[in-house]
Specification:
4-stranded antiparallel sheet; binds manganese (II) ion; 15 strands; TIM Barrel; binds phosphoenolpyruvate; 338 residues; 11 helices
């Protein structure tokens, strides 16, 4: 239910309503809007709560939330959520760009990548230190050593670090180095991991599982939001279809579809979505045109030597070109870009 308070509700009123909702065995999420404060009362529905709450003096009205996800829904909050990490701004008219190698490989590779990403105008730097690889024999990442290199790259450039965390036990450690925690596609429904990142005060970039529906995707986001972390970014990274000309199929209708249902920002990853470097620039341009709030792009100083995902990694020159082309579309849409 959404408990809409009358205009001008004081902090005491909000606290009092929160207490009443929690006494009903429901969780209360307070959302302070520009005009009204609403409280989302979430939990197993019993009997009569709606009427009881509607009868309170401070309450204007109580409306049921129809979507299966609650806190992620536009029904609760119509203003877009803007996620910020250092100079990286995603959402609310800002197209934030995160670029960098698939994996952190060495100090030299990471520092060079960071300088090239900075040069491109992107504000976020990606790089996996813990890598979810399909084969156990593939490079698994430099782990904490990789996180240290990412933190050093941030010191060098000021870029916000986006890196994956694969298990609840590592959340605290990864959060101590990273600015944004990435949940990989394979882990979209790892509910303990989602809850663990929900307890941290760092933004979360949640990737869509390759076979997840939109409702499953939003319910995964709901796990993070329900723990109190409101800084969630959704990332479309392609789904599994019968097609084999691309690594995955990148459905850009996801962007406007989600826009109608959630206030959370939506980023597109055309690198994993296509698996082919030459397709990344056009699909980046298309993503911005479709209304994406950001891009996640793989770039390697020397893609042919990359330890993972070389075929889909842009060269530094291709990244610069992609940025220039997207900027034109962003300007036309009056969005800030970078
Ligand atoms: C990645 O970003 O390098 C990655 C592993 O992506 P995904 O989880 O989308 O496969
Ligand atoms: Mn990758």
């Amino acid at each position: 239910m959404i408990v809409v308070l009358k205009p001008g509700a004081t902090q005491n009123t909000v606290d009092d309503m929160t207490r009443r909702i929690e006494e009903m065995g429901l969780k209360a999420h307070v959302i302070v809007g520009t005009e009204r404060t609403v409280i989302a009362a979430v939990g197993e529905k019993r009997n009569g709560e709606q009427e009881t709450l509607a009868a309170c003096d401070a309450v204007d009205k109580v409306v049921p939330i129809l979507a299966p996800y609650k806190i992620a829904s536009c029904e609760i909050k119509s203003e877009p959520t803007v996620v910020r990490a250092l100079d990286l701004v995603i959402g609310g008219g800002n197209v934030g760009v995160i670029a960098g190698p698939c994996s952190v490989e060495s100090e030299e590779q990471m520092m060079l990548s960071a300088a090239q990403v900075k040069e491109s105008g992107a504000k976020g730097l990606r790089g996996g230190a813990f890598k979810p690889r399909t084969s156990p024999y593939s490079f698994q990442g430099l782990k904490e050593e990789g996180l240290k290199l990412l933190a050093a790259a941030r010191d060098l450039t000021g870029l916000a670090i986006v890196t994956e965390v694969m298990t609840p036990e590592h959340v605290e450690m990864v959060a101590s180095y990273a600015d944004v925690l990435q949940i990989g596609a394979r882990n979209m429904q790892n509910y303990h991991l989602l809850q663990a990142v929900g307890e941290v005060d760092k933004p979360v970039l949640l990737k869509r599982g390759p076979s997840a529906t939109m409702d499953e995707f939003l319910l995964a986001a709901e796990y993070v939001l329900d723990q109190g972390n409101s800084q969630v970014v959704l990332c479309e990274r392609g789904i599994r279809t019968f097609e084999s000309h691309t690594r995955f199929t990148l459905p850009l209708a996801t962007v406007p579809y989600l826009r109608e249902r959630t206030h959370l920002p939506i980023v597109v990853d055309p690198s994993h979505g296509t698996g082919v470097a030459s397709l990344v620039a056009p699909m980046s341009v298309a993503s911005v045109a479709a209304g994406a709030d950001g891009l996640l792009l793989e770039m390697h100083p020397n893609p042919s030597e990359a330890l993972s995902d070389g075929a889909q990694s842009l060269t530094p020159e291709q990244l610069a070109d992609t940025m220039t082309r997207c900027q034109v579309v962003a300007d036309a849409l009056e969005m800030s870009f970078g």
